């Protein structure tokens, strides 16, 4: 098996075009397939000749929003994974493993409990704050001790922050039943039942994170040569790292606000992108955006059929694939 699937730029451009085509096919499948099946005629009729029938309402108000949200969240988590793995030089770096998802979730739980916060816009900003604080805590804990920051230490710090935040969340949910009812919608890690109004609130932040990641992909290539080399080439490494951290906060915070904590997409997607297009972060970023969207839509579709007529939360589906992948990557990467 070749270490890189697509070796020429022409092949990589063709691969991007194919990825977009696959994404569109899966988006169509996400609208048409589920506990109730629809045809293309049903889909086009709901968009062009809407008459308010039950089938048209399901297509327009349920299926289309969940596909769009899954695509945007998947793209955001894929890009965040690339940024985290490049920033920490850690092959198992991922928003869920590093405590960013749990920190954002805890901040929303505390906001609802202590301040009665209920607006979608407030949840978005609160998720940003929780992501930033948990990320700072992981960085601080991972940097303690002799030798400073290392892949093993930062991974253990992320696991500790995740465990702490999760325990706090469970405690609050047990004590305050009202909070349980209001925030369980976000903590389930699912796109089921989400409305387009949620996407309207978070899409500008996601788009800013996508654009920032693409713009930083070239400076990140230089940064991966090492801080000393990058500085010798005239790069302001502090500003590049600050930009990367800012994009991570935008992408992860917006994703948690939209769909709750969904793990392992940010772990798997960058490795797939590296296998397909190589280690150039410009190509990895572009592929991670598309592969993240593809993977989360595919997980959503699979979750509809695994427990038919019920649905499996999308977070469970990503965990079923992501947990073995994490073990494999940790054994391969952290042992070096």
From TrEMBL:
Protein location: Cell membrane
The entry's keywords: Cell membrane, Membrane, Transmembrane, Transmembrane helix, Transport
Superkingdom of the organism of origin: Bacteria
Membrane topology per record: Multi-pass membrane protein
Principal location class: membrane
Residue spans crossing the bilayer: 12-33, 67-86, 98-116, 123-142, 154-175, 196-218, 238-269, 281-306, 312-330
A Pfam family hit: FecCD
Family per similarity comment: Belongs to the binding-protein-dependent transport system permease family. FecCD subfamily.
UniProt protein name: FecCD family ABC transporter permease
Originating organism: Paenibacillus gansuensis
């Amino acid at each position: 098996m070749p270490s890189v699937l697509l070796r020429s730029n022409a092949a990589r451009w063709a691969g991007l075009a194919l990825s977009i085509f696959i994404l569109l096919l899966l988006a169509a499948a996400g609208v048409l397939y589920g506990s109730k099946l629809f045809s293309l005629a049903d889909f086009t009729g709901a968009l062009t000749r809407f008459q308010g029938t039950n089938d048209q309402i399901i297509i327009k108000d349920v299926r289309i929003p969940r596909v769009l949200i899954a695509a945007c969240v998947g793209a955001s988590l894929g890009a965040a994974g690339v940024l985290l793995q490049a920033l920490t030089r850690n092959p198992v770096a991922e928003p869920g493993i590093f405590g960013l998802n749990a920190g954002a979730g805890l901040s929303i739980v505390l906001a609802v409990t202590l301040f009665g916060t209920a607006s979608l816009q407030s949840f978005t900003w609160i998720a940003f704050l929780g992501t930033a604080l948990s990320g700072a805590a992981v960085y601080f804990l991972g940097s303690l001790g002799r030798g400073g920051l290392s892949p093993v230490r930062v991974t253990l710090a992320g696991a500790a922050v995740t465990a702490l935040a999760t325990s706090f969340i469970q405690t609050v949910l047990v004590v305050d039943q009202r909070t349980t009812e209001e925030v369980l919608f976000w903590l389930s890690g699912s796109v089921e039942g989400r409305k387009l109004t949620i996407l309207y609130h978070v899409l500008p932040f996601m788009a800013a994170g996508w654009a920032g990641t693409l713009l930083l992909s070239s400076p990140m290539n230089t940064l991966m040569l090492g801080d000393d080399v990058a500085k010798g080439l005239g790069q302001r490494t502090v500003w590049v790292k600050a930009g990367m951290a800012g994009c991570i906060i935008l992408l992860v915070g917006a994703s948690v606000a939209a769909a709750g904590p969904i793990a392992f997409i940010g772990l798997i997607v960058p490795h797939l992108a590296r296998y397909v297009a190589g280690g150039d972060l410009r190509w990895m970023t572009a592929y991670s955006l598309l592969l993240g969207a593809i993977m989360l839509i595919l997980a959503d579709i699979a979750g509809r059929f695994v427990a038919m007529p019920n649905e499996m939360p999308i977070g469970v589906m990503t965990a079923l694939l992501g947990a073995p992948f994490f073990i494999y990557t940790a054994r391969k990467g952290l042992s070096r």
